């Protein structure tokens, strides 16, 4: 950015600042502009004005709060994609194994699925250029296969038991990014929905999932928000509206420069009756806390798990002249009972981000008794007048400790290095035809497929080749869990994400506690609701 551009860029900031802040911010902005002028005119070496301005903006925002951020123009589109609910490309889930690009699954409704690309296909060439054994990275794949809707790309795939490469000319299209990972019935009257984010498509996805579950006689609902970092406030409000009766406060927002705004439920909602359980953990934040807080404050259901992250700040995105953007915190949000969920950040951003890890060190993830709230953070729910807490996340009604019983260094290493994923991908690739013939339905697979000693030995051999040595003591601790994970990952490759979670959740303590609570709802609800 040259001097003229820098001045034009800053001039727009000066005008805005002088209009909003009656001159004081203008004076400070002008001071910075003069400083930049002096650098341009007199500094001993050449300078990068654009880089200096970017760093200045980042520095200012970092002193305000942990969630006000600057987004460079080249990163803005990538950051928006998960919340906008789509990207443009060929529509595959992929993995890179032994320097080869494997198709895990074509995305439902995408151009690859329509043309017949299959799970297990190896993409060897793109537009006639070899991409195998060249040190391919995820970013390389995005660069090769993503592109504007309507543009064409040719992929050449190697398919098991087919000698020749198969060419597919694919017209790129809008590819959905789903915010719901799983929807299924866990018994005759209870549905389960696993939600990974609150995006522009979440409400439509959720309503579709509700309809699917209602058609199967779902009267109770478990909504799994564990590790859900949030997203759009509006999506959280509309999901809460599906659960709450008319004219109930869902959340309200307020800031020094933002008037109080109330968000109320309407007359619509498919799950306003029936038992509701929300699952949360230390990774549940923002919009997840809005939904959990509304359900808890209105005594509409029970929240089970561990204390959520504690993000109660609302951001608004503002575009800058060079197509970069800033997301600035404009308000706090409060649950219906008046709780501010935001945890303190006055000791710096690094300590703020590490606070969740400190919970483990001081026992807060292992014992409810290790969590202490001052009286000033106590609030009352709006129907049953139960005590709930603010100022640091949503405290669940029923605490489930972090499970360390299956944890070992071996288990940590195979997860950290992605060995489980790579092993199951290779295993299914080698046995796909046989398994598809044997397990035509998931229920058959669920009941009859087991990770026997032969499969497990193949896994430990594979792990050793990948740099994780056989450890008999660790495997005594983690062996059963590893076998469950292999079974779940194979189910994902053969059937889908719903089936992955049906296997994975069989050892998920928070999920199992929810089932126990639903079976004994009257006794739990009489005590807690």
CATH homologous superfamily classification of the largest domain: 2-enoyl-CoA Hydratase, Chain A, domain 1
Distance between the termini: 61 Å
What is the annotated CATH architecture of the largest domain? Answer: Alpha-Beta Complex
Return residue spans where pLDDT drops below 50 for at least 5 consecutive residues. Answer: 10-22
CATH topology (level 3) name of the largest domain? 2-enoyl-CoA Hydratase, Chain A, domain 1
Secondary-structure-based class equals: alpha+beta
Radius of gyration: 26 Å
The number of distinct structural domains comes to 4
How does the major sheet shape up? 6 strands, antiparallel
Q: Could you name the CATH class of the largest domain?
A: Alpha Beta
How many separate helices?
18
Q: How much of the residues is beta strand, in percent?
A: 15-25%
Q: Quick check: average pLDDT?
A: 90
What is the strand tally? 21
Protein described:
- This protein is an alpha+beta fold and 529 residues long.
- It has four domains: 3-63, no CATH class; 86-176, Pdz3 Domain (Roll); 180-320 and 330-402, 2-enoyl-CoA Hydratase, Chain A, domain 1; 409-495.
- It is 42% helix and 21% strand.
- Strands 3, 4, 5, 6, 7 and 8 form a six-stranded antiparallel β-sheet that branches. A six-stranded mixed β-sheet has the order 10-11-12-15-16-21, sandwiched between helices. Strands 1, 13, 14, 17 and 18 form a five-stranded antiparallel β-sheet that branches.
- The radius of gyration is 26 Å and the shape is globular.
- 34% of the residues are buried.
- Mean pLDDT is 90; it is low at 10-22.
């Amino acid at each position: 950015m040259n001097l003229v551009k820098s001045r034009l860029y800053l001039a727009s900031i000066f005008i805005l600042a002088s209009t909003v802040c009656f001159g004081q911010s203008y004076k400070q902005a002008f001071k910075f502009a003069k400083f930049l002028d002096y650098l341009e005119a007199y500094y001993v070496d050449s300078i990068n004005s654009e880089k200096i301005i970017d760093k200045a903006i980042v520095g200012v925002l970092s002193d305000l709060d942990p969630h006000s951020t600057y987004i460079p123009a080249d990163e803005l589109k990538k950051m928006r994609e998960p919340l906008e609910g789509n990207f443009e490309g060929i529509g595959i889930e992929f993995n890179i194994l032994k320097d080869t690009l494997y198709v895990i699954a074509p995305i439902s409704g995408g151009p690859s699925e329509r043309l017949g690309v299959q799970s297990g296909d190896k993409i060897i060439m793109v537009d006639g250029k070899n991409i195998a054994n060249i040190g391919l990275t995820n970013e390389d794949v995005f660069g090769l296969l993503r592109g504007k809707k309507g543009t064409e790309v040719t992929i050449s795939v190697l398919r098991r038991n087919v000698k020749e490469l198969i060419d597919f000319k694919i017209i790129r299209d809008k590819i959905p990014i789903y915010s719901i990972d799983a929807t299924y019935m866990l018994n005759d009257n209870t549905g389960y929905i696993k939600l990974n984010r609150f995006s522009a498509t979440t409400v439509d996805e959720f309503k579709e999932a509700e309809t699917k579950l209602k058609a199967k006689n779902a009267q109770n609902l478990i909504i799994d928000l564990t590790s859900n970092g949030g997203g759009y406030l509006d999506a959280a409000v509309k999901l809460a509206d599906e659960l709450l009766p008319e004219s109930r406060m869902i959340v309200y927002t307020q800031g020094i420069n933002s008037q109080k705004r109330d968000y109320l439920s309407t007359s619509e909602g498919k799950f306003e009756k029936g038992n509701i359980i929300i699952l949360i953990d230390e990774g549940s934040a923002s919009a997840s806390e809005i939904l959990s807080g509304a359900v808890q404050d209105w005594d509409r259901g029970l929240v089970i798990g561990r204390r959520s992250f504690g993000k109660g700040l609302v951001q608004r995105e503002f575009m800058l002249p060079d197509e970069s953007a800033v997301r600035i915190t404009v308000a706090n949000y409060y649950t219906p009972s008046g709780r501010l969920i935001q945890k303190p950040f006055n000791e710096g951003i690094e300590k703020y981000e590490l606070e969740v890890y400190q919970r483990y060190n001081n026992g807060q993830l292992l014992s409810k008794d290790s969590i202490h709230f001052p009286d000033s953070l106590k609030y009352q729910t709006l129907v049953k007048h139960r005590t709930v807490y603010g100022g640091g996340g949503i405290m669940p009604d029923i605490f489930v400790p972090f499970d360390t019983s299956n944890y070992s260094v071996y288990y940590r290493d195979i997860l950290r290095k992605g060995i489980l994923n790579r092993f199951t991908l290779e295993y299914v690739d080698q046995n796909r035809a046989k398994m598809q013939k044997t397990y035509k339905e998931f229920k058959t697979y669920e009941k009859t497929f087991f990770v026997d000693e032969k499969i497990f030995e193949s896994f430990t051999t594979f792990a050793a080749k990948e740099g994780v040595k056989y450890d008999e003591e660790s495997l005594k601790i983690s062996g059963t869990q590893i076998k469950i994970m292999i079974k779940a990952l194979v189910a994902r490759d053969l059937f889908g994400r719903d089936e992955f979670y049906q296997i994975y959740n069989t050892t998920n303590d928070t999920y199992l506690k929810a089932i126990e609570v639903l079976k004994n709802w009257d006794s739990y609800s009489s005590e807690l609701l």
